[in-house]
Design brief:
single chain, eight-stranded parallel barrel, two-stranded antiparallel ribbon, binds zinc ion
């Protein structure tokens, strides 16, 4: 066992020297609920603004510097009411300095609603919001993000001074983001989030992770997430590669095989421990703001 730990540490040093040079601090995002993960899968998924704020504060205490949020109706269905998002933002800001990242995804928008309803809460000025500039069959459901729509979203994000987190379901999204940067539609240091293991998207392998990390422009920041049982292995590879990580019940409801996670904070705590063991300190929200140019 000790040999294995030393091998792991040796490998981590090697990878840092290849990809990072200097060991950079780790930014942890807690994706605490998602749009559709419900309590039949894990009773600890937060729904109400108070439950969401409480989970955010617990994750902040555990070491997360960003919280990624979807609003929910009382029955757990996806919610697109701006005032609910506003209540969530205010409750969190009253209690801690965690960086707020709000979803703008229209994937679960009820039929007939204008697509801009998916981001009508940007008025509350989260520091980060998700930005989808590509389409994918997301878990078997068409998730269409047309150029017309994501250009309109980019304009609104600029208007409110929000950093777009570019959601990467496949490599084509990175190429699209590069073109948007050349056009000036995306500005500043790019922030990419690789989403691995979603049916219809890039599978959750170390090779794919490495490939995506090599595709983004050199001045970018990137993080990675993976779904279900791939969450932890991809988190580990990402820590070693110098990227940032995302955990939480949106992506995975288990702590280990067959054991449900007790809370989002429990998943964050484990990543903090692992990252400290391999010599990578965890960034505070203040440090993350500097690193990500927020
Ligand atoms: Zn999300």
């Amino acid at each position: 066992m000790r040999d294995k730990i030393f091998k792991f540490l040796e490998l981590s040093c090697l990878l840092f020297s290849i990809f990072g040079g200097v060991v950079r601090k780790l930014v942890i995002t807690a994706a605490i609920n998602g749009g559709i993960t419900n309590r039949s899968k894990n009773p600890n998924v937060p729904y109400s603004p108070e439950e969401i704020a409480q989970a955010a504060v617990e994750c902040w205490n555990a070491g997360a510097s960003i919280v990624h949020i979807h609003a929910r109706n009382p029955d757990g269905t996806p919610c697109y009411h701006a005032e609910i998002y506003g209540e969530i933002v205010h409750r969190i800001r009253d209690r801690c300095d965690i960086i707020i990242n709000l979803s703008t995804s229209g994937l679960n928008l009820p039929k007939g609603e204008p697509v801009s309803k998916a981001w009508n809460h940007l008025q509350f000025r989260p520091e980060i919001a998700s930005f989808n500039c590509g389409s994918v069959n997301h878990g078997g459901k068409p998730f269409i993000n047309s150029p017309e729509v994501f250009r309109a979203l980019a304009v609104d994000m600029q208007k409110f001074g929000i950093k777009p987190e570019i959601e990467v379901y496949h490599e084509g999204v990175i190429e699209e983001a590069k073109l948007l940067t050349i056009e000036g539609i995306l500005q500043g240091k790019p922030l990419f989030a690789f989403a691995l293991g979603i049916r219809g998207g890039t599978s959750a392998t170390c090779k794919n992770l490495l490939h995506l990390a090599e595709c983004v422009p050199k001045d970018s920041e990137w993080s990675a997430l993976a779904i279900g049982k791939s969450q932890l292995p991809i988190n580990l590879h990402t820590i070693l590669l110098g990227g940032h990580v995302r955990t939480g019940l949106e992506d995975n409801v288990y702590y280990s095989r067959g054991v449900l996670a007790e809370s989002n904070a429990q998943l964050v705590e484990r990543l903090v421990k692992i990252s400290n063991i391999v010599g990578r300190e965890v960034a505070s929200p203040r440090e993350a703001r500097v690193m990500l140019s927020l």
